[in-house]
Amino acid sequence: MSSTAPTLTTSTAFEKTRAEGRAALVGYLPAGFPDVPGGSDALRSQVDSGCDVIEVGLPYSDPVMDGPTIQLAAQRALEGGVRTADVLRTVEAVAATGTPTVVMTYWNPVEHYGGRGGHAQSVARFAADLASAGGAGLITPDLTPDSAPEWIAAADEHGLDKIFLVAPSSTESRVAMTTAACRGFVYATAVMGVTGARTTTSDLAGPLVERTKATTDLPVCVGLGVSNGDQAAEVASYADGVIVGSAFVRALLDHDDRAAGLRALAALTEDLAAGCRRG
């Protein structure tokens, strides 16, 4: 393992939440929204208000999994000039709080990181720089384990979490193959579709978590759709972690005043964290 291996991995958070008998709250925001310093402030507010793991989004121009709320925030970040280096600086700022911090990214920016050499060199550079920034790992929504030999090798070299996704449509063999390749936790997508806060949780999530847990001892976290504490409590009754993104982004989008946005973000985080404890 490289000397740049992170001292904090997501297992640190899940060991703590399991000891406390509750689910973890995983909070997402894209880096650079509303700008780079403001994005770091917002993510640190999530930490202060109850998030156990932070997921930093790398804004990308073709976000196939993101719904309109996250697309809007990511577009604003891109229009503001955010770059991958800014994402890594954001990771460094958040990881300095002692909270495990992962990056959610589509694969194209990683394959072209640094602009020198081939894909393997770019992936290796990205992994090294992520680890140096204190990042715990990557969530890769458009990369499957059987297409990820370069990332798996780089992640293993630097001790980074490899967080792949399973979906309600995943076959038993795909679920088993995916969880075998994961390190840190498994991301279970609760709905067939893009991200976005919903008024009810998916009835597909529970069975998917059950099928996933049958193949692995890793924590299984549910994402897509949770927007309030009651929904978080429902998901926390069967999952090890509750992943929330669009609702957090919306809390900031709904307030032009930055201080008001941070207060709304903190209040939502506290409500969701309380739901995770109830569940």
Summarize the topology.
Layout: H1 10-19, E1 24-30, H2 36-49, E2 53-57, H3 68-79, H4 84-95, E3 101-104, H5 107-111, H6 119-132, E4 137-139, H7 149-158, E5 161-163, E6 165-166, H8 172-181, E7 186-189, H9 205-213, E8 220-223, H10 229-236, E9 241-244, H11 246-253, H12 258-278
Largest sheet: 9 strands, parallel
Fraction of residues in β-strands: 5-15%
Strands across the major sheet, in which order?
5-4-3-2-1-9-8-7-6
Overall, the morphology is globular
> What do the pLDDT scores average to?
91
Radius of gyration (CA) equals 17 Å
Distance between the termini: 37 Å
What structural class do helix, strand and pairing data support? Answer: alpha/beta
The helicity comes to 40-55%
Low-confidence residue ranges: 1-5, 192-200
Order of helices and strands: HEHEHHEHHEHEEHEHEHEHH
